[in-house]
Amino acid sequence: MASQQLIDELYDFMYPLAQRAGEILLEGYEEAGKQVNIKTAFYDVVTEYDNKIEEFLIEQILARYPAHKFIGEEDTAKNNHVTKELTDAPTWIIDPIDGTSNFIKQIPHVCISIGLSVKKQIVLGIINNPVQKKMYTVKLGGGAFCNGQPIHVSNVDNMNEANVAYEVSLLHIANLKVRNKHIKRIYHVGSRARRLLAYGCVVDSLCMVAAGNLDAFHIEDMYPWDCAAGYLLIREAGGVVTHPYGGPFDIMKPDLICAGTESLRKELEGQIRKADQAKSVGDDEE
Fold it and tell me: What are the binding positions for Mg(2+) in this chain (predicted)?
């Protein structure tokens, strides 16, 4: 495990960089004619500001810590510091803009997510939503904060009282079996939760669970940069994060359920299991 001195040093180094990255994001957010490019499919988009922010952060980190590694969404730094695997080396896990489609349309659920792993353990996270003027910060063992104020998960313990987020953009997945899986899960979870919501930004949804604005969130088929900082934020805010079927959360295969209480997490898991056993929407309720 990293020493507290090292965690504090790296946090103090990264915090002003995250602030500056937020300023870059705001420049693009307010720009009318953003350049938008397609990555893998029509729904998978990237802007010049995704690349600008990632390049800025990686360049600043390497100037100070040339041995550090990176796992990032855009991988704009084409050098041997970018890795696809988590090792014991200090590794920054960066999403320069989560919610790029929101960013393009000036929808305020947009975040910069910066997590740090040391010896394969997430030890700090900084998440900046500059549009909403919210900076979420977390250190391992040090609690979770928004704009310097402590945050805590909600105490809702059942689905009928819960606001649950589910990322419906997963319906874009080309694999029909996977797409149908999500349709069934949305039906089972949405028909039992007080509200089912989708924000188009995984990182912001994780932050809202940590702050008690949401009671639970479920996501699959994501990447380490979507969840690294938010995972630690929820844990330090008193919440629970597991694999959807209840096993340990794996940052390199970040399928997850997170909730403010274990009882709510367990009930959500039960609905996911029930959905996966159903042949089609509603067939188990006829």
Answer: 73, 95, 97-98, 226
pLDDT in tens, 234-271: 999 999 999 999 999 999 988 999 999 999 999 999 99
- Please choose, from the candidates 140, 159, 100, the residue with its C-alpha nearest in 3D space to the C-alpha of residue 235: 140
97 is catalytic: yes
Q: Which of 54, 95, 167, 220 is catalytic?
A: 95
Q: Which of these is catalytic: 50, 54, 98, 267?
A: 98
Binding residues: 73, 95, 97-98, 226
Q: Which residue ranges make up the annotated binding site for Mg(2+)? A: 73, 95, 97-98, 226
Residue 75 has pLDDT above 70, yes or no: no
pLDDT value of position 80: 47
Of 156, 103, 170, 185, the C-alpha closest to 263 is 156
159-277: CATH topology is D-Maltodextrin-Binding Protein; domain 2 (3.40.190)
Q: Reply yes or no on whether 107 is catalytic.
A: no
Choices 3.40.50.150, 3.20.20.300, 3.30.540.10, 3.40.47.10: CATH for 4-150: 3.30.540.10
Active site residue 95: yes
Q: Is 215 annotated in the active site?
A: no
Instruction: Characterize 137-153 residue by residue with b for buried, 16 or more Cβ atoms within 10 angstroms of its Cβ, and e for exposed.
Output: bbbbeeebbbeeeebeb
Asked whether 15 and 137 are in contact (CB, 8 A), the reply is yes
Give the pLDDT score at 77.
47
| Range 272-277 average pLDDT | 95
The SS3 assignment for 163 reads strand
Q: Where are the domains of the chain?
A: 4-150, 159-277
